[in-house]
Specification:
single chain, about 400 residues, Aspartate Aminotransferase, domain 1, Aspartate Aminotransferase, domain 2, 5-stranded antiparallel beta sheet, 12 helices, globular, binds pyridoxal-5'-phosphate, pyridoxal phosphate, PyrdxlP-dep_Trfase
Length: about 400
Amino acid sequence: MPNKITPAVRTNNITYAVRDIVVLANQVAKSGKEMLYLNIGDPNLFDFEPPRHLVDATYKAMLENKNGYAPSSGIKEAIDAIEREAERKGITNVHDIFVTTGASEAIDICLTALVNDGENVLTPTPGYPLYTAIASKLQMMENPYYLNEENGWLPDIEDIKSKINYKTRAIILINPNNPTGSLYTEENLRQIVELALEHNLVIFADEIYDKLLFDGKKHISIASLNKDVSCITFGGLSKNYMVPGFRIGWGIVSGRKEVLADYIEAINKILRARLSANHPEQYGIKPSLEGSQEHLVIAMQKLTRRRDLTVEMLNSIPGISCVKPEGAFYAFPRLHMKQPDSHFVAELIKETGVVVVPGSGFGQVPGTQHFRVVFLPNEQILEKAYKAIGDFYQKYLEK
Ligand code: PLP
C-alpha cells in the first residue's frame, strides 16, 4: 500500500455547513422523497431575476471580445461606478477600490494581507462561515463576539470590548447579517467605530445585502460614520443584483491615507499576483448600480410576504422562537431543546425532505440550538415546509 497523501493541517477545521448539508439532502432525494429546499441563498433558483440591462451589458462585453484578463484592480468603468456608489453610501476618504471574484475573494485577500499567524480577528457569532474557513487557511485565530438574540441579534459592545487583546487586528461586521437577518443600529455602529479607533483595528464591513431591507429600513454604512476609521466595505452583485454565478464583488478602502498606505500596497500585491477578476461580467457593474432598481422593489414585495409568513408560522410552533429579520432573506429560529441542532436537522431532512442548515454551522452562543432558513421559495413551499417542521419537531421532542 503506497503512503497516503496527507492534506495540510490547515484544512482540518474547514467546514461550510451550507453546502455540507447538501450531501445528506442528495442522498435523501435519491430515495424519491419530495424535497423542500430552504437552505440555499441563491435568488436565481427561485422566482427572482437579475435586471435585464445587467445581463445585456455583460453579453455585449463578451461579443465585443472583452474576454481577456482585466486590470488587476478591475476595469475603470466599474471602479468609477463603485466610487459613486460609495459616495451615495456616504463613504468619504476612499483610497482604493478593487473588483474581485465575488465579495468572498475580496474578504480573503484583505484578511490575507492583514493578519499574521496567531493574530486574531473579531467575528460575529452567529455569522457567515466563510470567515471561519479563511481563518483556518491563514492559521489566524477567530475571536468570536456574540450577537444577542434577546436584543434583536445586535452585538453586545461590552462583550466585544472584553475580547480585544494585543493580537486583535480587525473586527468583522455583517450588516445585514447572514444568518440572522439583523441590521446594526447607528448607536451600535458608532460604538464599534470608537473601539476600532482606540485599538487600531481595521473594520471589515460586509454589506453584501445592503439593498435587501424590510419595512422601509435605512442601511447605515459604518464607514460613513467616521472618515478616519480604517474600514473596508465589501459589496457585490450576488445578492442585490441576483447574479451570484457572475462571481463579482468588490472592496472599498476608506480611512486615513497615511495609516492605510502599506496595507493597501499589500492588498494590491495579492491582487496583481492573482491576475484579475472575471472580465466581461465587470461591465455589468455600472448598469447595475446606476440603472433601474425596479427588480429590488419587486423582490422586496415578495420577500416581505415570505418573511412575515416565516416569522408567524415558526413562532406559532411550540418550542421554537424566531426574531424578525430586518434585511437579507434568512431567519435563524431557535430550538428550545437540549439535543444538538445538527442531529435535529439531519433527522428533519431524512424524515420530511425539508432542507435547512443547522445553527452550529454558523457558530452560536454555547448551549443554544438553532437552524437557518432561507425564505426565497414561494409561500406555498414555505407553508408546507413550516407545517412539516412543526409536526416533526413535536414528534422529535417526544422521542
Ligand atoms: N458575505 C456574506 C455575509 C454572504 O452571505 C455571502 C454569500 O452568501 C458572501 C459574503 C459571498 O458573496 P459573493 O457571492 O459576492 O462571494
